[in-house]
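Checklist before submission:
- one chain only
- standard amino acids only
- sequence pasted in full

Submission:
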Amino acid sequence: MKINEYKPDHNGNIVAKVKIFAIFIILLLGMGVVNIQDIIFEPVSAQADFNINYDSTNSNSTQNNTLLITNILAKNLENRIQKAGAILEITSKLPQVRDVPYSHLLNQTLNTLHGIPQYADIEKRQVVKNILSSNNDLYEIFFVMPNGNMYFLEPYSIQQSLTLNNYAFRDYFQGVIKTNDTYLGNVHATAAASGAKTAKIAVPVYSLKDNSTIAGVWAGSIDFKVLNKELQSLNLPSLEDSMRVVYVDSKGQKIADSDINKSTIPESFSNLTGFNAAIGGQAGSTIDTVDNTKMLVAYHPVNAFHNTWVVLMMQPSPLQ
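Returned file contents:
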């Protein structure tokens, strides 16, 4: 596929579309999401289909742009989740993580400190500090006892601000206990005083005594600010009027938004046809109504750790 070989369509807009496409590829290559070979050297049959679509109508080229970009963004999000999950899985096997030597302190400190004291189990806290210093996808990591009680959370300043002591009701905790495997939770308000929206990746931790008894749950909170910043750095409104990308969880709750003016506003996209198709494992595009406007919505599932999130890319439909 060679970008400079595309011909203008009947409306003379293909040049703008190709520029948008090229900019996205450059940006996403910068993210390390794809290799240039994956974009240029596609199978012959797929490349032929792609060229045919781009030489047809403007609406077809717009649709192909959005499908390709949505696919790349979905892969990028999946890679981020998988990377963060792999870090938690590897560190969950460390002896200093599997050992819980200060759990007896919770009898005195759970209700006051929301976990063990700051200078207890320093080795485990140091593991977390090392992770957070080298990975910006997670902003906190914590250990929960098998009964759901918080053992510790790092940074300790966040532990101090917690408003809950037991997390057995959270989807990520129940998912780990049910599957005995790494589990990706959905969006919820954090138990810290800030009440910010977050989602967890949780991993079972097995006792040092054997590899079958769960000693606790090792979990990290995904930093939605990083995801928002990444989407907003694409500067979508300046590339295409009213184009918008959102990441949503399996219930349709928004995770991140390319629109900086809407990124902190809670929204649900569960009623969209595209969202429900993606939850069912499909990728494609459809015409949906968003905010009382007919929109071309491209959708792609993001499957990770027993859960499915969705990427939605929306722009005004050419078929008004």
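Reviewer check: The CA atoms of residues 27 and 47 lie 22 Å apart.
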